[in-house]
Amino acid sequence: MTPTLRTDTPQVESGADTIELLGLVAQLELLSFTRLAADSAQAPTLEQRLELSRFAAASVERRDRVLSRIAELGGDPVSAVAEFEHVLDDFDARTQPGSWWERLLTNYVGYGVAEDFCRIAAAGLDEQSRDLVLEVLGDSERGDLTVAALGAAGSGDAVLVSRLALWGRRLVGESLGVVQALLVSRPGLVRLVDRGAAQEGAPAKLFGELTAQHTRRMGRLGLTA
Amino acid sequence: MTPTLRTDTPQVESGADTIELLGLVAQLELLSFTRLAADSAQAPTLEQRLELSRFAAASVERRDRVLSRIAELGGDPVSAVAEFEHVLDDFDARTQPGSWWERLLTNYVGYGVAEDFCRIAAAGLDEQSRDLVLEVLGDSERGDLTVAALGAAGSGDAVLVSRLALWGRRLVGESLGVVQALLVSRPGLVRLVDRGAAQEGAPAKLFGELTAQHTRRMGRLGLTA
Predict the structure, then answer these.
(1) Residues of chain A with C-beta less than 8 angstroms from the C-beta of B64
(2) What is the ipTM of this complex?
(3) For chain A, which residues make up each domain, given as ranges?
C-alpha cells in the first residue's frame, strides 16, 4: 500500500505559521482573561462578579490547551504568546468604554472580530490544531451573558440602544484595523488565510466575511450594525 | 443497636454558623481571584502573568466548591458570600502597596492571616465542611511563588529586605484588626472558634496562634516578623 497524497499535509514552513496563529489565539485568551477579571471586579452585582470570574477562569484553561499544542509542535509557548503582547494596545487606547454597557460591548465586539479572524485563518492549519482553535474559540457562553445583559438593559431604553449601536460601529472599525495591521505585519498569517481559502473562499473576501459576522453579532444584541 | 452519642454532631444553630464561615472562605477566595488577576495584569514578566492567571483560575474553582457546599447545607451561596463583601475594604484602604514586591507581600500576608483564622474556626465545623475548608485553604502553590519571587528579589538587596520586613509588620497589624472586627461583629464565628477550641486550645490563644503563624510565614521569606 503506497501512501496517498494528502492535500492537507502542512508544508515545511507552515509549522512556524501554525505556531504564530496559535500564539495569537493564546494571547487573545490571555487578554480575554485579564478583561473578564477586570469586568468581574467592576460588575454591578455579585452574581455577575461570580459568573464573570468563571468565564475568566475558563479563558485560562483554554489558553493553556493552546500553549500545550504549541509545545507539542516544538514551539516555545511563552515566546509565541509574547509575539502578540501588544496586539490590542491601539484598539484598547482608542476604545476606552464610558460605561459598564460599553465595556461589555467592547469585549464582545472587539474580541469577536479578532476571534473570527483566527477561525478563518485556522482553516489553513493541520487538522488537530484547527480543531483545537475552533473548539477553543467556539465557546459562546460569554457571548450569551453579554447578549442577556445588554438585551435586558436595552429593552425600553431607546437612548441606550442607539448609543450602543453607535459604539458598536466605532468598535468594528477599530477591530478591522487590528486585523489589517496583523495582515501587513505577519506574512505567516496571510499564508494561513491563503491556504484555508482553497476551501473557504478567496482571501479578498476576508473583510467582507468579518463584517458580515459582526452584523450577525450586533443583530443578536438587537443593535443595528 | 442504639445510636451512640456523637460529640461532633452539629448543634441546631451551628448550620447557620457553618454557612457563615463558608461564606467568609468563599468571599476570601473571590477577593483572592480579583487580586491575583490584577497581579497577573501588572506582573513584570509574561511567565509571571501566565502563572498568576492560573492561580486566579484555581481560586475560582476552590470558591465554587465552597459555594456548592453552602447550597448542599441549604444555604443561599450568593447571600452567604455577600455577607462579607466589605470584609477587606479597610485593610485594602490602609495597605496600598507602593511596589510590586509590597503588593506580593500584601496578598501573601494579608490573606495568610485571614485564612489562618478560617482554618482555626473550621475546627468547629462538621467533618465534611471542615475537610473542605482545610483542603481549599491548604493550597500552598501561591505562597510558593511569593516565596520564590521575594527570595530572589531580596537576596543581596538589604534595603529591600528591611523595607519588606517593615511592611510585613504593618500588614500583620492590619490583618489582626480584620480578625478582631470579625469576632466583634460575628458571634457565629466566635461560637465556631469556641467549639473548635475544645480540641485546639483556648479561644484566648487565637491571636497568639495567628501571630505565631505570621512569624513562620515571614520566616519562610527570610524576613523578620
Answers:
(1) 54
(2) 0.85
(3) 14-220
